[in-house]
Design goal:
- The longest helix is centred in the last third of the chain and has 24 residues, at 251-274.
- The chain has helices at residues 8-16, 44-49, 66-82, 94-102, 112-125, 127-137, 139-144, 150-163, 167-172, 194-210, 213-222, 238-245, 251-274, 289-299; strands spanning 21-25, 52-53, 86-90, 104-105, 174-175, 186-189, 279-283.
- The chain is 54% helix and 8% strand.
- It folds into two domains: 8-106 and 175-299, 3-Layer(aba) Sandwich (Rossmann fold), CATH 3.40.50; 112-172, Histone, subunit A.
- Strands 2-1-3 form a three-stranded parallel sheet, sandwiched between helices. It has a two-stranded antiparallel sheet with strand order 4-5.
- Helix 6 (127-137) crosses helix 8.
- The protein has 302 residues and is mostly helical.
- The chain starts with 7 loop residues before the first helix and ends with a helix.
C-alpha cells in the first residue's frame, strides 16, 4: 500500500524476483482498458515479465465497483494460493483494501435522478455547498471526504437522500464479513519527506504528458460512449486532460490542476494509512525497503 508515486510497483516487482509471488493490482483506474499512461500501468515489457491480475479487465464505459473488486480479488487470491504461490496485492485504492478486509455495507443502488439533482446544484452553488450539506447530515463523512472530491461527495449525499440515513451509519452495519479464508499482512511505503513526494508527483505527471497522455485521452473522448460523468473519466489526470480537450482549461492550467489533484489524492491516501490498524510502515522506497519487506514476510510465516 502507499500514496501515489511512492514506488509501490517497483518494490512489488523486486519482491516478485525474490519470492514465488503473483501480483494483484489494487487500482481503480488500472482496471480499465485503453487507460495506460494516466493510470500509471507498468509498461508492456514489465507486464510480460511480471503479470498483474486485475489490470485491463473492464471497458471504461462500464463502472467497476469496490464490490466487483472484492469478488474478483477473492477469486484470484484463491487461485494463487491453490497454485502454492503468494498473492501480493499492490496499489493505492484504499477503499478496495478496506472492503477486502472489512466486507461491504448494505447500500442502495445509484439514482440517476438524484445524481443529476446534486450535479445541477453543484454547477450553480459549487461543490463546497454540497460538502456543507453533507457536513450537516453526516459530519464524519464530510470530515473524511475532501470538498474537491465530487465523486465521493455525490455518492455520500445520494445515499443519505435515498435512505434518510448517513453513509457512516450504514457502513457501520456491514454484511458479508465471514471469516476470511486467508490472513492479510499490510505493508505500506510512506515517504517521510512530503516535499520529495510532491516533486515525484510533478515529475511523473509531466512525464505522462510527454509520453502521450493527451492523445490517450483524445482517443477516449472520440468514443461516443464515454463522458465526464463516468468513474473512469473522473480519474485524476484524465479529468483534467478531458477538460483541456473540451477547451475548459488551457495547457498550463491543465498541467497545474493535474499536479494539484494528484497531490490531493496522495494526501487522502496518507489519511487512510494513518488510521490503518496493524500496518507496517516501510518508509520510502529505498535500498532498505526490500530487505525490510522480506523480513516481515518471513516473520509472518507466509
Amino acid at each position: 500500500m502507499g500514496p501515489t508515486a511512492s514506488g509501490k510497483t517497483d518494490l512489488a516487482i523486486e519482491l516478485a524476483q525474490q519470492l514465488p509471488i503473483d501480483l494483484v493490482s489494487v487500482d481503480s483506474t488500472q482496471v480499465y482498458r485503453q487507460m495506460n499512461i494516466g493510470s500509471g500501468k507498468p509498461d508492456a515489457d514489465t507486464l510480460a515479465r511480471f503479470p498483474h491480475r486485475l489490470i485491463d479487465i473492464n471497458d471504461p464505459s462500464e463502472p467497476y465497483s469496490a464490490a466487483d473488486f472484492r469478488s474478483d480479488a477473492f477469486s484470484h487470491i484463491e487461485d494463487i494460493v491453490q497454485r502454492q504461490r503468494i498473492p501480493l496485492l499492490v496499489g493505492g485504492t484504499m477503499l478496495y483494501f478496506k472492503v477486502l478486509r472489512d466486507g461491504l455495507a448494505r447500500l442502495p443502488g445509484a439514482s440517476q435522478a438524484i445524481r443529476a439533482e446534486i450535479e445541477n446544484r453543484a454547477a450553480v452553488e459549487g461543490w463546497q455547498s454540497i460538502h456543507n450539506e453533507l457536513a450537516r447530515v453526516d459530519p464524519p463523512a464530510a470530515k473524511r471526504i475532501h470538498p474537491n472530491d465530487p465523486q465521493r461527495l455525490q455518492r455520500a449525499l445520494e445515499v443519505y437522500l435515498l435512505t434518510g440515513k448517513p453513509l457512516t451509519e450504514l457502513h457501520q452495519n456491514r454484511y458479508d464479513q465471514a471469516n476470511l479464508p486467508f490472513r492479510l499482512v499490510f505493508l505500506a511505503l510512506m515517504p517521510e519527506d512530503r516535499s520529495q513526494l510532491h516533486q515525484r508527483i510533478e515529475h511523473r505527471f509531466r512525464h505522462m504528458l510527454k509520453s502521450g497522455l493527451v492523445e490517450e485521452v483524445r482517443l477516449l473522448r472520440d468514443r461516443e460512449d464515454l463522458h465526464p460523468g463516468l468513474p473512469s473519466i473522473k480519474s485524476v489526470g484524465y479529468r483534467q486532460v478531458w477538460q483541456y480537450l473540451e477547451g475548459e482549461l488551457n495547457y498550463d492550467a491543465m498541467l497545474e490542476r493535474g499536479i494539484i489533484a494528484t497531490r490531493q489524492l496522495a494526501k487522502r491516501q496518507h489519511t487512510w494509512l494513518r488510521s490503518w490498524p496493524e500496518l507496517t510502515i516501510l518508509g520510502s522506497h529505498s535500498g532498505n525497503s526490500l530487505p525490510a519487506a522480506l523480513n516481515i514476510l518471513e516473520s509472518a510465516q507466509i
